[in-house]
Amino acid sequence: MDILILGGSGQLGQTVYRELKENFQTISFNKSQLSIINKKELRNAINKYSPKFIINCSAYTKVELAETEKDKADAVNYIGIKNVCEIAQSNDIGLIHFSTDYVFDGKKNSSYIEVDKAVPINEYGASKLRGENHILKNYDKFFIFRVSGIFSEHGDNFVKTMMRLKDRNELSVVSDQLMKPSSASFIANFLSINLLKNNFTMSNVGLYHLTCSGLGISWFDFAKLIFQEMTEQKLITQGPKISPILSKNYESSVIRPKFSVLSNDKVKEKFILPHGNYRQNLEDELNRIYQSL
User: Fewer CB in a 10 Å sphere around the end CB: N or C, the chain?
Assistant: First the structure.
């Protein structure tokens, strides 16, 4: 077996499986089939299939709920990662794991690089950082990719939320939080290209920021771009009027980083990055996402 995917029912897991199954012997498990929290079942499955790589797409990603469900977030984002890491290590399996831009506090004014100090300001980011740190300290055959603003036709994400609100007259969207979104297809394509090129080698192990090209964008401007693209692709005739709102005036139970744009300079040195920026990602995926609603 080449690839074993964990968290196969999420938007990243489904997209990665769809991409990799064409060229690799790949098996995917959703959390009901194989939970990373169940160490015994996890060990049995990995021993049975003996994959060359484990791609961990499992994650607790409910940012607001993580504040009150800390144990649930930690169970998946930290304890589960400890299990995966230990079993991967005992079987000498390459581990590909995804983390988040939310490990940063957002106080920097330029793109975050991998050596910047991670200081999460919410429980979701803190739980993801605990998982990261465990891998960094306990295994040497790992590839951690921090990603941000993922969108696809699967699951819940910002693009789908905006599309569902297309018939509203007016929307207010946060304008003072900047990030760099990526489609799940971009990430899956990255994995496929570099697995085919055998770039997941010991000389390339480490922590990376995986984003497409281009500058950061606010959620407000990204929302405007979504409706602009929907109009251009004739999915709608006219979108809602979108008004900017500051984070402090937006009703939320959790603090999010104001600036979490990730630099992709390091990943470009070691791996092949697919062409295109988030606007091109959005153009390519828009109709597929719209049809999934």
Answer: C
- Strands 241-245 and 142-147 come out as unpaired
Residue 208 falls in the annotated catalytic set: no
pLDDT above 70 coverage of the chain, percent? 100
Domains of the chain: total: 1
Cβ(7)–Cβ(59) under 8 Å? yes
In angstroms, the CA 272 to CA 268 distance is 6
For residue 141, tell me if it sits in a domain. Answer: yes
Q: How far apart are CA 20 and CA 24, in angstroms?
A: 6
Terminal alpha carbon distance of the chain: 34
Question: Which residues fall within 8 angstroms of residue 155, CB to CB, at 6 or more apart?
Answer: 10, 11, 14
Domain containing residue 267: CATH number: 3.40.50.720
- Distances in Å between the Cα of 203 and the Cα atoms of 140, 142, 236 are 11, 11, 48
Q: Is 231 a residue whose pLDDT tops 90?
A: yes
Q: Are strands 53-56 and 94-100 parallel, antiparallel or unpaired?
A: parallel
The chain-wide mean pLDDT, for the chain, equals: 97
The catalytically annotated residue of 17, 78, 102, 124 is 124
Out of 119-133, 176-190, 245-259, least confident range: 245-259
For residue 241, tell me if it sits in a domain.
Answer: no
CA atoms of 228 and 246, how far apart (whole Å): 22
Q: Which token pair is 116?
A: 């910047």
- pLDDT over 90 at 253, yes or no: no
Residue 252 has a pLDDT of 87
